[in-house]
Amino acid sequence: MINLKCSLPFAMLMVLYLTMNSCNEQSSSYEESSSSFDEVPKIERNPIEGAWYLVWGEYNGNERIEDKPFQVKLFTEKHFSYLMKSDSIQWGHGTVGTYELENGIYREKFLYSTNSANMGLTAEWEYEVKGDSLFMNGPIKIINAQGVDISEQDDRLHSMKEVRTRAN
């Protein structure tokens, strides 16, 4: 049987030792480095992270403009979610998934959706951020849940243009 009276102080000493040792390593490396703020690496902020309201859209040539936002889309570092009005009153469509940005391309993968046909789907869009506006055009590529490119068979290809404004 383990003697807790002996092992607890030993464990506390080990934690104290490791903590002090790691602090000493950090402080010595800090002292060796320059103290100039000019050399601190700048962290690039994700340009779309935050909350966005969809304020204008064109779907298959039909323009949709409303007095109030008809979609709210949230972006964290790697995830997105949105809730969209299916008509002018009812919020009826929602999706959650992951996304990545690469050279002006926004790629989203639908993990959960109120439209089961979208589950597992990956869509690529062209995107551009100008000030507090996010412009999206596409989708330019659609891959189904099995990993097959269905861009040419899907009638949604190049059918949407959207403008969002930053909500925060």
Secondary-structure blueprint of this entry?
Layout: H1 4-32, E1 50-59, E2 62-65, E3 71-75, E4 79-85, E5 91-102, E6 105-113, E7 122-130, E8 133-143, E9 160-166
Antiparallel strand pairs: 1-2, 1-3, 1-9, 3-4, 4-5, 5-6, 6-7, 7-8, 8-9
Write out key terms for the chains shown.
168 residues, alpha+beta, Lipocalin, 2 domains, eight-stranded antiparallel beta barrel, 1 helix, globular, disordered N terminus
* Intertermini distance: 58 Å
Strand content: 35-45%
Q: Multimeric state of these chains?
A: single chain
Shape: globular
- In spatial order, strands of the major sheet run 1-3-4-5-6-7-8-9
| Largest sheet, strands/sense/barrel | 8 strands, antiparallel, barrel
Name given to the CATH architecture of the largest domain: Beta Barrel
**Unreliable runs:** 1-33
Structural class: alpha+beta
CATH class identity of the largest domain: Mainly Beta
Give the mean pLDDT. Answer: 80
Care to describe what's here?
There is one protein chain. The protein is globular and about 50 Å long. Strand 1 and strand 2 form a beta hairpin. It has 168 residues and is α+β, with helices and mostly antiparallel strands. The termini are far apart. The protein folds into 2 domains: 36 residues; 117 residues, Lipocalin (Beta Barrel), CATH 2.40.128. It has an 8-stranded antiparallel beta barrel.
